[in-house]
Amino acid sequence: MTSPARTTPRPRIAVVEDEHDLRDAVVDYLVASGYQTWGTDSAEAAYRQLVVEPVDIVLLDLGLPGEDGYSACRHLRQIPTLGVIVISAHDTVEDRVRAFECGADIYLQKPAAMREIVANIEALSRRLSQAPMPLPPQATTPGWRLNPVDWVLRSPEGRAISLSAQEFKFLQCLVKVGCNAQVSKREIADSLWGNHLSVDFARIDVLLTRLRRKCLEEGGQPLPVKTVTAYGYLLTAPCHME
Q1: DSSP string over the chain
Q2: For residue 101, how many other CB atoms are within 10 A of its CB?
Q3: Range of the domain at 174
Q4: N- or C-end of the chain: fewer Cβ atoms within 10 A?
Q5: Alpha carbon distance 225, 171 (integer Å)
Q6: Beta-bridge partners for 87
Q7: What's the chain's average pLDDT?
Q8: Are residues 95 and 158 in the same domain?
Q9: Is 48 domain-assigned?
Q10: What is the reported pTM?
Q11: Distance, CA of 107 to CA of 228 (rounded, Å)
């Protein structure tokens, strides 16, 4: 008996796993199985990639470097349409309960068989497709807005993200040149700290990581900023000064 033809597109998948060989094996298997899939080794890298390549389901390890999987799960669940499958070597009741409290939809123990991973992806995809969809924005809904008085970034849905002085200046540099226009790290550093040749550009990356996390937590969606390798940053969506 033949299986019925698939009537919905396959979900897009992200694999967030710091073990290189395991991540590559899962990504390769999913791609070979027909899923659009990418992988990263940290939560911070995942936030950056989600801006330019959104997904439907994240396969998430808990023992990540930097921000751990529990914290990442909480931030990812701020995106209402996103599903999270935790795949972890930890398998105590406390680990499972904590992961579910952070927003995980499914918890699998390592080593998980590839067929089991795919079966859970499909089950979660069906569940997500049956969930009520968020109301589409009205035609009059504005895009991202930056308020220079209150130092607030507003999402297209109107959710307010409070900014520090440096976070505001960083975004102001990008808003001034407009969507998809690149701004160098040197220009941003000069705006943040003045014209000091010895500024460590890594400080900007730390600031941006904090801002991405805040945007997910308070704004409910990824910050529309893309890192341009070896140069600087650009806005990936329109943002206007209020």
Answers
A1: -PPPPP-SPPPPEEEE-S-HHHHHHHHHHHHHTT--EEEESSHHHHHHHHHHS--SEEEE-SS-SSS-HHHHHHHHTTSTT-EEEEEES--SHHHHHHHHHTT-SEEEESSPPHHHHHHHHHHHHHHHHHSPPPPPPPTT---EEEETTTTEEE-TT--EEE--HHHHHHHHHHHHH-BT--EEHHHHHHHHH-S-TT--THHHHHHHHHHHHHIIIIISS--SEEEETTTEEEESS-EEE-
A2: 11
A3: 144-241
A4: N
A5: 9
A6: 108
A7: 85
A8: no
A9: yes
A10: 0.62
A11: 35
pLDDT digits (tens, 9 = 90+) for 201-241: 888 988 999 999 988 888 888 889 988 888 889 988 888 88
User: Which two three-digit tokens encode residue 107?
Assistant: 């918890």
Which of the listed residues 130, 162, 197 is the one where a domain comes to its end?
130
d(CA 86, CA 107): 5
The CA distance from 18 to 21, in Å, is: 9
Token digits for 221?
A: 């969606």
- Using one digit for the tens of pLDDT, what is the confidence trace for 145-204? 898 888 899 888 888 999 998 999 999 989 888 888 888 888 888 888 877 667 788 889
- Whether the CB-CB separation of 220 and 159 falls below 8 Å is answered with yes
**In this structure, are 151 and 125 located in the same domain?**
no
CATH of the domain at 167: 1.10.10.10
